[in-house]
Amino acid sequence: MPLFPRLLLVALLLSTPALATKTQSVLYPQHLSEAAIRNAESHEWARQLRDSIVANAKPWRDASDEDLWNMPFGHRITRSWMVLSDGVCPNCGKDVKMYNWKIDIWNHPWKVQCPHCAELFPKNDFAAFHRSGFDERGIFDPTQADRSLLVNLEHPDPSDPLHAFGVDDGEGYVRGEDRWRFIGYYLVAGLWRQGIVGGVRALSDAYWVTRDPVYAHKAAILLDRAADLYPDFDFATQGLVYEQKGRAGSVATWHDAC
Fold first, then answer.
1. Which of 91, 100, 206, 229 has its CA 20 to 30 A from that of 162?
2. Residue 257 pLDDT greater than 90, yes or no
3. What is the C-alpha to C-alpha distance for residues 41 and 28, in angstroms, rounded to an integer?
């Protein structure tokens, strides 16, 4: 199910007392979920499918409620459809065009990885920098962030010529005429697509085949926080595609997930 209807559903649940007391599924008939559970208990193929769905949701189930609540991000960092559409890795110099940068939000949070040399970018601790800029709503404000954190952790000495190599403050790492938007791309392809949209889907699927309320609880946290932030997003004024201003969309460009 697309994310926007899920956000709308959460908004309705939070704002309408009558809906908040509902006792059965609105979107899917409960008897189909019950049939899926029975099949998993009786048939090996169904059991394997259920186990695969549950395994897919495990990272979100195991995450703390606070970590899930902090996963949705604010609108004040320029979001980008790619790191550098016709670019190379600034470390090895090999072509890494379009969508070839690797992202693993669980093993390498706030990083993108070159598919050739496996180098991770940005070189600064962006998670710490991001947290340092939270305003009273828990939304990143670059004017409040601690810019002393913008250092290459592998080359912390200010006299080191690589001290600023690969450092991204959210608006990209600049070298010459090139700007690598590591974080801008990570927000779209990593946190949004993998973490939030992917997380809600994985958790809802796991709830569907288990009826375990933990999955619903975790999904609701993501949806609730995303709904807080969603009205501030406008990709046409805040996002980039091929290093050009986006034309339409909210968190991502119009033809992506919201």
1. 100
2. no
3. 21
95-113, pLDDT tens digit by residue?
999 999 999 999 999 999 9
Assign 3-class secondary structure to 6-75. HHHHHHHHHHCHHHHCCCCCCCCCHHHHHHHHHHHHHCHHHHHHHHHHHHHHHHHHHCCHHHHHHCCCCC
- Whose CA is closest to 67, among 19, 106, 33? 106
144-202 pLDDT tens trace: 999 999 999 999 999 999 999 999 999 999 999 999 999 999 999 999 999 999 999 99
The three-point CA angle 225-189-176 to 5° equals: 120
- The encoded tokens of residue 195 equal 């973490």
The b-or-e profile of 179-195 (16+ CB within 10 A means b, else e) is: bbbbbbbbbbbbbbbbb
Q: What is the dihedral of CA 51, 57, 62, 65, to 10 degrees?
A: -150
